[in-house]
């Protein structure tokens, strides 16, 4: 289903919206840079030029989202996130701080979707509607037993280590959203939706806690690294899961290492 949208529906939409067309050309150039090492820098520079132009054209649109342009804005939000994930993969440069870099991607995704919130009804009725209805149109199956056990361990750590009741509820909600992401991936291994949706649906208090590098927030992020790694067949996600888990491993003290043992084991399985 998703291939049809990216090959037919979204390019057709881009014919009327230059910001979306430049975004598609940017991600295409990054793919070419990845697959043509001898011309990598040429295509990387081309991607940057197209993305710069897309951003310039896109910004004014955010102040005037209408039923007519809402689908293009929605499509570009996905493309922009793909580009953000893809750029360091293609350049071959590990972000100096993968956690901070990922927080920046979260901010981009959450900001655009916040603006799009009022337009969801329009998008739902548009040609791109099935993309946002996908998670509601499938029969969810339980996550694998090791995922369930790992998330139960996070819940127990939250219960034991988080004294403030409101903060404990925040973390419980975030872990529950992560459980939903794993369940959707269990339903459809090829689904990219959970990898994109989790950073958007979690409560706004979580990115704040993550920016403060609170240990439990970092441990949860390592588990999200497994979600990313499960989507590594999408080249723009690539090694992001490993980067995040390694960064969390380095950031946490020995006391918190047992809370990320499962993500470390899962990432080791993909060596």
Detailed description of the structure:
It is a single chain. This protein has 271 residues and is mainly α. 71% of the residues lie in helices and 0% in strands. The chain contains 14 helices and no strands. Helix 4 runs antiparallel to helix 5, helix 8 packs antiparallel against helix 12 and helix 9 runs parallel beside helix 12. The radius of gyration is 19 Å and the shape is globular.
In brief:
The chain has 271 residues and is an all-alpha fold. The chain has helices at 2-14, 18-35, 40-58, 70-91, 98-116, 120-124, 129-133, 145-161, 165-187, 193-201, 205-211, 215-230, 240-251, 261-268.
Largest sheet: none
DSSP helix fraction: over 70%
Strand fraction band? under 5%
H/E element sequence: HHHHHHHHHHHHHH
Amino-to-carboxy terminus distance? 30 Å
Rg, Å, rounded: 19 Å
Keywords:
single chain; 271 residues
SSE blueprint and pairings:
Layout: H1 2-14, H2 18-35, H3 40-58, H4 70-91, H5 98-116, H6 120-124, H7 129-133, H8 145-161, H9 165-187, H10 193-201, H11 205-211, H12 215-230, H13 240-251, H14 261-268
């Amino acid at each position: 289903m998703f291939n049809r949208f990216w090959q037919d529906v979204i390019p057709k939409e881009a014919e009327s919206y230059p910001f979306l067309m430049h975004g598609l050309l940017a991600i295409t150039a990054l793919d070419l840079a990845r697959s043509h090492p001898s011309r990598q820098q040429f295509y990387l520079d081309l991607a940057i030029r197209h993305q710069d132009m897309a951003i310039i054209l896109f910004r004014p649109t955010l102040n005037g989202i209408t039923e007519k342009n809402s689908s293009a804005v929605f499509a570009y939000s996905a493309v922009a996130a793909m580009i953000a994930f893809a750029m360091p993969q293609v350049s071959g440069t590990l972000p100096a701080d993968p956690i901070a870099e990922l927080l920046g991607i979260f901010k981009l995704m959450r900001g655009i979707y916040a603006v799009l919130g009022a337009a969801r009804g329009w998008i739902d009725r548009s040609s791109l509607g099935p993309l946002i209805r996908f998670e509601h149109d499938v029969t969810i199956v339980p996550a694998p037993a090791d995922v369930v056990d790992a998330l139960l361990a996070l819940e127990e750590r939250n219960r034991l280590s988080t004294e403030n009741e409101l903060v404990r509820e925040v973390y419980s909600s975030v872990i529950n959203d992560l459980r939903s992401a794993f369940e959707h991936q269990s339903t459809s291994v090829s689904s990219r939706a959970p990898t994109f949706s989790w950073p958007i649906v979690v409560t706004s208090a979580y990115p704040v806690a993550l920016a403060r590098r609170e240990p439990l927030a970092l441990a949860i992020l390592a588990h999200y690294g497994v979600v990313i790694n499960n989507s590594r067949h999408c080249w723009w996600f690539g090694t992001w899961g490993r980067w995040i888990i390694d960064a969390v491993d380095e950031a946490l003290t020995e006391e918190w290492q047992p809370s990320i043992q499962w993500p470390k084991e899962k990432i080791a399985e993909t060596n």
